[in-house]
Amino acid sequence: MLKVKNLKKSFGSFQAVKGISFEVGKGEVLGFLGPNGAGKSTTMRMITGFLPPSDGTAEICGHDILLDPVGAKSCIGYLPENAPSYRTMTVTDFLTFIAKVRGFTGAEVKSKVEAALEKAQLTTVRGQTIETLSKGFRQRTCFAQAIIHDPKVLIMDEPTDGLDPNQKFVVRKMIREMAEDKAIIVSTHILEEVDAVCTRALIIAHGEIKADGTPNELRAKDPSGELDVVFRKLTMNGEEAANV
Amino acid sequence: MFNCKNVKTIFQREFKSYFDSPVAYVFLVAFLVLIGFLTFGVAMYYERRQANLMPFFFWHPWVYLLLIPAVTMGLWSEERRSGTIELLLTLPITLTEALVGKFLAAWAFIGIALGLTFPVVATTAWLGDPDGGAVFCGYFGSLLLAGACVAIGVFASALSRSQVIGFVIALAICFLMLIIGFDPVINAVANWGVPSKIVDAVASCSLMQHYDAMRRGVVDLADIGYYVGVMVFMLAAAKLVTERGK
Q1: pLDDT category of residue A243 using cuts at 50, 70 and 90
Q2: Who among B13, B20, B89 is closest to A97 (CB)?
Q3: Position A104 pLDDT exceeds 60
Q4: The complex's ipTM?
């Protein structure tokens, strides 16, 4: 469903992403792990068509993001970092706007909005402006816009960042419920997320893939069997590791 | 590929967003008070004892100069500041559709403000017998001038995430584009000994010169073409800047 082919991105002389390739199939939840500044968000922004890659491309449900950006974007649901949304709009108006841009018309708009409100558990705040909502509700509102068109590929950039344990539980439950018929990428630097939702994880550091496998395969990379030890070993450079 | 339905959806959201806060109402009141004061107070509308709208249309460029940057300054800069640009540009729409939708929304908003000046026309019609064609031409020219200023504002807003910078740059560009065709400035430059061909060539690029003909009741295709050209150029520049600044 999603093929990432040798994606590279440079900002001036700084190479943020140094050639990343991977595939995600239906039913997979890929954890995109890495420390801050590893290139996770940049990679996701290239896959979703927000940033043009310096080299390489991504193919979403057969649509190349560079050659057919509109076709590719229509197959993707994207929850950007910090869950941005138009804060002066009400939750319903915001989702109605997204549904219309996603190509729905007439009664279909209303039914899609209702379904998204239901799935993201937003019915109680539907008439409130987004700026009056708590962080958890704002996150879920942005999550609702990402799933409103029932996308085949769902990409979420740190979906549980800054949420309290209850809100994290709700978001993770929603991800697991949708995993069956979608290809999902979840970027995070919270390792507990891997066990909570991911079927496979990819560790990225300094713009490169350092490891790719199931959570258990990754654990096996260190005798301790602990994911955070493996994570540190793979993502810290020699100098950083020596100082620990 | 250009999908008008997407433009319409962006337009509706942007247009409605003006009325989600008091900004729209403050703007409309400020616009009408300023236009009214300049027409009736400064330009001595009644004292002239002529039933035409010349003193009314005369002030439009200067009112636009001050108020249009305020309407357009947040169009892109706010999207950048709040991060919604990432949401908007990962939806299945093109950047051109988003730009055109935003531009049309701001232009339509100015159009409403202009439409609300109808009491000035009604007053003139009550006092005398103004030339309907000239009134239409004046409004048409004013709307085109507003469109060009809005396009400049869209471009300025795309330059940074700061609304203040967007406002100041839009104001500076609009001021420059107006002043190079303002008669007192043209005369002053000509008196410095600058060849008249150069003065005329520069003045012909001004927003003011093309508006002057229309506010006097003359509509020329070249003037319409000029304003459309400015709008297209500025929106293309805004597209380039947005693509580079992502």
Answers
A1: low
A2: B13
A3: yes
A4: 0.91
- Main-chain dihedrals φ then ψ at residue B106, nearest 5 degrees: -65, -40
What per-residue confidence (pLDDT) applies to B104?
A: 98
- If residue A57 lies in a helix (H) or strand (E), which one and from where to where? strand A55-60
Q: Which two tokens stand for residue B108?
A: 């339509």
Burial class (CB in 10 A: 0-12, 13-18, 19+), A243: exposed
Inter-chain CB proximity A88 and B21 less than 8 Å: yes
**CA B36 – CA B45 distance, rounded (Å):** 10
State chain A's mean pLDDT as an integer.
91
Residues of chain B contacting residue A84, judged by C-beta atoms under 8 Å apart: 82-84, 86-87
What DSSP assignment string belongs to A182-243? SEEEEEES-THHHHHH-SEEEEEETTEEEEEE-HHHHHTTSTT--HHHHHHHHHS-HHHHHH
Q: Read off the pLDDT band of A1 (50, 70, 90).
A: confident
Is A77:A149 a contact under the CB 8 Å cutoff?
yes
Closest CB from A48, A81, A103 relative to B90: A48
Q: Residue A241's pLDDT band (boundaries 50, 70, 90)?
A: low
Do A85 and B6 make contact, defined as CB atoms within 8 angstroms? no
Domain A2-213: give its CATH code.
Answer: 3.40.50.300
The CA distance from A157 to B42, in Å, is: 57
Question: Is residue A242 scored above 80 in pLDDT?
Answer: no
Q: How far is CA A166 from the centre of its chain?
A: 20
Tell me the domain boundaries of chain A.
2-213
b/e A138-149 (16+ beta carbons within 10 angstroms → b): bbbbbbbbbbbb
Q: Is the pLDDT assigned to residue A218 strictly greater than 80?
A: yes
Instruction: Please give the torsion angle defined by the CA atoms of residues A35, A165, A230 and A227, in that order, rounded to the nearest 10 degrees.
Output: -160
CA separation for the pair B227, B149 (Å, rounded): 10
Residue from A167, A149, A180 nearest A26 by CA: A180
Residues across chain A: 244
Q: Band of the pLDDT at A115, cuts 50, 70, 90?
A: very high
Angstrom CA distances, B134 to A205, B51, B146, stand at 68, 12, 18
